[in-house]
Design goal:
Helix content: 25-40%
Organism: Coccomyxa subellipsoidea (strain C-169) (Green microalga)
Pfam families: Methyltransf_11
Radius of gyration: 19 Å
Strand content: 25-35%
Number of helices: 10
Strand order of the largest sheet: 3-2-1-4-5-7-6
Number of domains: 1
Family: Belongs to the methyltransferase superfamily.
Distance between the termini: 24 Å
Structural class: alpha/beta
GO molecular function, one term: S-adenosylmethionine-dependent methyltransferase activity
Keywords: Methyltransferase, Transferase
Shape: elongated
C-alpha cells in the first residue's frame, strides 16, 4: 500500500465518524466459511479507525490491527484486546504462523497483491483463513434525482481525482482474488446491501471522507466546495428543509474469502 497512505491522511476524523458500519451478517458469512478451529488471534490490515477490529475483538482473544496512517490510528477505537501498530499490509512484522484470520476492510484494492498474498500465507496458521470486503458507491433507492446528484459528484466533479485503484471497487473485487498458488479454496460472494439511516449532515461528513474529495480540495482550494452544490441538490430531491432530515443510504457489499493457505517455499 506504499504510496497511497496520503490519500486518507487529512480526513481521518471524518473517516472514523461517518463511514458505514458493516452488518453482522458479513461476519457470519466469514466465520461460516472459515470454520476456524480456534479464535485466538486475528490480524486486521489497513485497519483505519479500527471499525472492523472492534467487531473482531468480540470474537477473538487478541486482535492485531495495523495501518500505515498514524492519523487514522489516532482515531482508532481503544479496547483491551486490540493491539494497534504502524505497518504496511505487505510487511506486517507479525510472527509467522501466528494468526487464525486475516481481514481487510475496504482496502484490498490499494495493495501490492502478489507481495500481500505471500505475507498473508506467511502469518496464517495452517488452518487459518482470509477475508477482504468492500462496498461500492452508495445509492438512494427510489430517488432518481438524489442518485443523479451523487453520480454528478462521483463521476463528474470528482471523477478525474479518483485513483485508478478505486475503480477496482466498482468491479466488486473481481479479478483481485488470490490465485490457486496461494490458497486451496477461494470464493467471492456478493452480499445483501448494507444500509444506514443518515442525516444530511452525516451524509456530507461521509462524502468528505472520500479520497477524491480530499485531492480535489487540495488542488483547488479557491474553487467552491462541491459538497455545497451536492447538498442543495440532495435536499431538493428529498424535499428536506433541515440538515438533520434523514434518509436511508444503501451500499452494495461484497467479500473475497480464502482458506487452506499454501506454505511458502
Amino acid at each position: 500500500m506504499a504510496g497511497f497512505g496520503h490519500l486518507f491522511r487529512n480526513q481521518a476524523s471524518s473517516y472514523a465518524a461517518y463511514r458505514p458500519t458493516y452488518p453482522s451478517g458479513l461476519y457470519e458469512v466469514i466465520y461460516d466459511f472459515a470454520k476456524l478451529a480456534s479464535y485466538d488471534s486475528a490480524l486486521d490490515l489497513a485497519t483505519g479507525s479500527g471499525q472492523a477490529a472492534a467487531v473482531l475483538s468480540r470474537k477473538f482473544q487478541r486482535v492485531v490491527a495495523l495501518d500505515q496512517s498514524e492519523q487514522q490510528l489516532k482515531e482508532a477505537v481503544r479496547l483491551p484486546n486490540i493491539e494497534y501498530g504502524h505497518a504496511s499490509a505487505e510487511e506486517t512484522g507479525v510472527p509467522g504462523g501466528s494468526v487464525n484470520l486475516v481481514t481487510v476492510a475496504q482496502a484490498l484494492h490499494w495493495f501490492d497483491l502478489p507481495a500481500f498474498y505471500r505475507e498473508v500465507r506467511r502469518v496464517l496458521r495452517p488452518e487459518g483463513a482470509f477475508a477482504a470486503w468492500g462496498y461500492d458507491l452508495c445509492e438512494f433507492k427510489g430517488n432518481d434525482a438524489a442518485n443523479a446528484a451523487l453520480e454528478a459528484l462521483y463521476n463528474g466533479t470528482l471523477g478525474p481525482y479518483w485513483s485508478d485503484r478505486r475503480r477496482l471497487i466498482e468491479k466488486q473485487y473481481k479479478g483481485l482474488e488470490p490465485g490457486p498458488e496461494h490458497f486451496g479454496e477461494v470464493k467471492r460472494v456478493i452480499l445483501d446491501t448494507m444500509s444506514a439511516e443518515m442525516s444530511v449532515s452525516a451524509l456530507i461528513g461521509y462524502l468528505s471522507s472520500w479520497s477524491a474529495y480530499a485531492t480535489y480540495r487540495e488542488q483547488h482550494p479557491d474553487l467552491p466546495d462541491p459538497l455545497i452544490k451536492f447538498k442543495g441538490a440532495y435536499k431538493a430531491a428529498f424535499g428536506f428543509t433541515s440538515d438533520e432530515d434523514k434518509a436511508t443510504v444503501y451500499w452494495p457489499l461484497f467479500v473475497v474469502l480464502a482458506k487452506d493457505p499454501h506454505p511458502l517455499k
